[in-house]
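Retro notes, item 3 of 5
We never archived the inputs for the EPU complex last cycle. Fixing that now. Sequence and ligand:
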Amino acid sequence: MSANPTSREESFLVTGGTRLAGEIPVAGAKNSVLKLMAVALMARGRTTLTNCPAISDVPAMADVLRHLGCTVEITGDTVSIDTPAEVGHVADDKAAQRLRASVCILGPLVGRYHRAVIAMPGGDAIGSRPLNWHQTGLTLLGATTRMDHGRLVAEADRLTGARYGLKFPSVGATETFVTAAVLAEGTSVLENAAREPEIVDICTLLAKMGAKISGAGTSTITIEGVDELRPVSHRVVGDRIVAATWAMGAVMTRGDVTVTGIDPMNIHVVLENLRAVGADVETGEDRVRVRQEGRPIARNIRTLPFPGFPTDLQPMAIALASVSDGLSVVTENLFEARFRFVEEMIRMGVDAETDGHHAKIRGRERLDSATVWASDIRAGAGLVLAGMCADEVTEVCEVFHIDRGYSDFVGNVRSLGGVIERVDTSR
Ligand code: EPU
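Structure as it came back at the time:
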């Protein structure tokens, strides 16, 4: 797996004017594999995950687990985690702060060891990221939580089943509650649970390990506590956000892309939107072909929890609107700061304005190439797609963000015919 941490000073140079075409396989989902690695803390012995993506967040999570006492090997697309009988419960501050997803060790540690100490993650480029609903879930199961010198401390003498109704179907709060409840005494019920395919994947792994869970993928998840879990092997679900990135790139560049390794149902709403802007979409069991002739038509899009249009594709939706014919309104309902992306699109000559939850974008036939900044993984990918629709060479700076979530981004873009190069701008 080639996922060495990359320099903050690396940029992508993207030459506009090419059309994306060809077939591209998609690896396992970032937002599943990191959680599955954390779930390995819950069973003594070796858990093996296959179809893992070569992204920099995977070795970062491996470091978090190593600091707790696990042995982690990464070979090709396989990650093996050996968990000893006892692991530490204090996450290394620096290892954890490099990776916001380190929050996902909270539920597994409290579930199996009844205690966890993790550095409180701050807000990030996409907005504030509080943990209050994670804490409420743990408290209902019998734990206490408190802040201590910038760390969240959770402790319990015993965990007992509880009923919890989430105010909003938070992905992270669902994971924390479910992972802590699987080893609690008695029955737990989570209402208004997140329904994302990655939640289903985590519950599938837990069930293989011996957990008793029903309702994953629906709004109500029921968990009967068991005494222990056993380690198993599991194949990570395909990354729907990466798959949809290439599909949206095909539409923006008037190309023809087939993405494999993905259940089309996991991007059903995205594909409906692509059909509505004029794309020809064909689906198979584990593949999607998206073709676009002519200019896409403007369309209003609003982000929502699954099965709605994913917030992680909001930058791509804005990039698509920027080259569509007409006025599009994109509404963001999850992460308020994601509209910073619009400022980068304005550098590329787009007529756009934001107002709270809404961005209004009037598309152009072709964008102006410019120097633009990736503020997070998805904004970075959206800017590359925009760069492919620009007149000359666009420099996308700080692409270490993209490396956190996309395996071999340059290789994949080139395999589809895009013209892109990674450069070190520190020299
Ligand atoms: N929220 C709270 N309190 C909480 C938890 C969440 O107010 O205790 C709020 C958040 O501030 C946000 C909303 O609830 O406004 C949704 O947050 P959620 O908990 O669902 O998000 P998350 O678990 O922190 C995951 C993904 C994100 C993805 C969101 C939504 C991981 C590691 N991250 O975050 O992915 O955008 O779900 O689908 O799974 C990305 O991959 O680029 C990324 C940011």
